[in-house]
Design brief:
This protein has helices at 6-34, 42-51, 55-58, 60-72, 74-83, 85-107, 112-139, 158-182, 185-212, 218-225, 229-233, 235-250, 258-278, 289-292, 296-323; strands at 143-144, 147-148, 281-283, 287-288, 328-329, 332-333. The chain has 334 residues and is mainly alpha-helical. The strands form 3 sheets. A two-stranded antiparallel sheet has the order 1-2. It has a two-stranded antiparallel sheet with strand order 3-4.
Length: 334
């Protein structure tokens, strides 16, 4: 009988939570990034109405991912947090400021211009910080013994800034394609225009990050360009190119949901490429998932809770999206 590897299961749960967060919270952060490009008044109200029922629930997955990392891989948590305190703190502050601005722009119309700016600033800072965090993790974290051995500014490099800007462009495309799906009239036309720009930008960004990544760490190069990993790695760039082509053609398609779905595919392929690069490490090139894992009894105990809560979260999230599945106007969903 094949033994069950709880560590791999927990790695899958956390990867799923992080992926769900990126895909679900990415489009509302993207709307915040694009907010200045929409007309003051009806268009901006329509954009916010499109995400109002779901935006705060999307962040549940961020909590699950971060909490799961602490509980299931405490060594990784203890190393990653000191290494990335600055960008992670900036991300949390950006998310808090965005949430405050989202609520106050409706309740304090006299200062709506300030809250609109705050909504954009919070979304941009949070997204940039997430991308920088990913880049800093990919380029490697200095580990000494069982702790972080680097300096305060090790996370800030040209590569981490590249991944930060790339994620900003990617979230902006998610936001634009979401609005193509959910809005009508001038707002939808503006979203199509912005989606064309962001689609080109994201494909360029994916190419740039992918070209740099194999040279950051010897293991990355081997996993992408050595047999048998080559058999898995070669189809990914081809699929990215084909998806990008279909996405470009879909932006003006009458099937309004297609650009959003194809953008999700682009993100999924990018995350697959990331998984190919780092697996089975939780801190690339330094600590594997098995070295960082909590004791087996702890994993079993937590798995019982996750087995109950994760389906509940998926269920109420799916229900929320189903209830608010239609188009939106200035007054809300109809």
């Amino acid at each position: 009988m094949m033994a069950i590897d709880l560590t791999v299961i927990w790695a899958g749960i956390i990867a799923f939570a992080v992926g769900a967060y990126v895909l679900m919270d990415g489009f509302d952060l993207g709307i915040g990034i694009l907010f200045p490009f929409f007309r003051v008044g009806g268009e901006r109200d329509m954009a916010l109405n499109s995400i109002a029922p779901v935006w705060d629930g999307n962040e549940t997955w961020l909590v699950l991912g971060g909490g799961g990392l602490l509980a299931a891989f405490p060594l990784a948590y203890a190393i990653i947090l000191p290494a990335l305190y600055a960008p992670l703190t900036a991300m949390l502050l950006g998310l808090v400021f965005r949430g405050v601005a989202f609520e106050f722009r409706w309740r304090d119309p006299a200062h709506r211009a300030f809250w609109d700016f705050s909504f954009t600033a919070g979304s941009l800072v949070a997204t940039l910080a997430q991308g920088i965090t990913l880049g800093a993790l990919l380029q490697g974290i200095r580990v000494e013994g069982r702790g972080y051995g680097g300096g305060w500014w090790d996370w800030l490099t040209p590569f981490s800034l590249l991944t930060g800007v790339s994620l900003v462009v990617g979230y902006a495309l998610l936001g634009a394609s979401w609005l193509i799906w959910k809005t009508v009239g001038p707002a939808q036309q503006d979203a199509r225009r912005l989606a064309r720009i962001c689609a080109i930008g994201l494909l360029v960004a994916i190419f740039a990050v992918s070209a740099c990544t194999p040279f950051l760490e010897g293991k990355y190069y081997a996993r992408w360009f050595a047999f048998p990993g080559l058999l898995v790695a070669v189809p990914v760039p081809v699929l990215v190119g084909l998806t990008g082509l279909f996405l470009w053609r879909s932006i003006d398609s009458p099937r309004d949901g297609r650009p959003f779905l194809l953008t999700l595919v682009l993100f999924a392929l990018s995350m697959l490429g990331l998984a190919i690069s780092i697996w089975p490490d939780v801190i690339p090139g330094r600590v594997s998932i098995w070295e960082a894992a909590a004791p087996e009894r702890s994993q079993i105990f937590m798995l019982v809770g996750a087995g109950v809560m994760v389906p509940i979260i998926i269920g109420y999230t799916a229900w929320a999206y189903w209830v608010f599945r239609g188009k939106v106007d200035e007054a809300g969903y109809h």
